[in-house]
Amino acid sequence: MTATALDQAPVRVDEVRVLDGPNLYFPRPAVKVSLHLPGYLQLPKEAALALAAGAGLRSVQPGRPGSALRQRFVMRLVRTVMRSLAADVSGRRLVVRARAGTAPADVVVAFPWHDRTRGRLAGEELGRVLRAVLGEPQHTASMIEAAAAVIREAPASSGGGEPMPLQPAVPVASVTGTNGKTTTTRLIAHLCMTAGLTTAWSSTDGVVVMGETLHPGDYSGPAGARAVLATPGLQV
């Protein structure tokens, strides 16, 4: 498929990422699926209602194609399909979160995982189901069942397949964003030091221990983190 054809695809899975620890969506490991769904965003209202019925959604308002209401409808639909898929795999209700992406047709969905291989496969199968039901909403249930069978039959991850969240020896605060990261870091550090805790931090200004700069320069990356965590008697 050419790049142009790929860009125009009604359903596209841009990324399936396994998140190994606490993240934006859950305080535990999760799978994040980035979807591009222009086919859903531009569906006629009648077709969108048929999709909702096929997925078991009632009393929905899909809104006009391309509208903000339609975007919310698509996020709800994706969430519902993912929950149904998880229920068919394990028989348990799965917490699924969805949010808008950077473009109106983009949706990000996330759900916790218990096995790395099957978690990633669930994200991939979600994309396949969404592609399939777009043209045949009346077969949504059977397509979800087929995708669930693929996930169930996949071999479990061998060695390290289960979540193993990191357990820091001391509390760690990570600050991200566009502007104000260093200022926010200094404020957090000041609060910790005022509480009487041995505190170290790193930023684009350097590595600092209890207000004293040990290594000036940009230490916002892993080197700064290593230096901070090597501080004797560190508490925060």
Cα gyration radius (Å):
22 Å
The helix fraction, in percent, is 40-55%
In round numbers, the mean pLDDT is 90
- Structural class call reads alpha+beta
> Approximately how much beta-strand content do the residues carry?
15-25%
Strand order of the largest sheet: 1-2-4-3
Biggest sheet, in brief? Answer: 4 strands, antiparallel
Give the low-pLDDT segments: 1-6
**How many runs of DSSP E, i.e. beta strands?**
7
Global outline = elongated
**End-to-end Cα distance:** 51 Å
Description:
This protein is α+β, with helices and mostly antiparallel strands and 236 residues long. It is 41% helix and 17% strand. The chain contains eight helices and seven strands, in the order αββαααββαααβββα. It has helices at residues 3-7, 38-41, 45-55, 68-90, 116-133, 140-153, 181-194, 222-229, and strands spanning 12-19, 30-36, 97-100, 106-112, 200-203, 206-209, 212-216. The strands form two sheets. It has a four-stranded antiparallel β-sheet with strand order 1-2-4-3, with helices on one face. The radius of gyration is 22 Å and the shape is elongated. The relative contact order is 0.12.
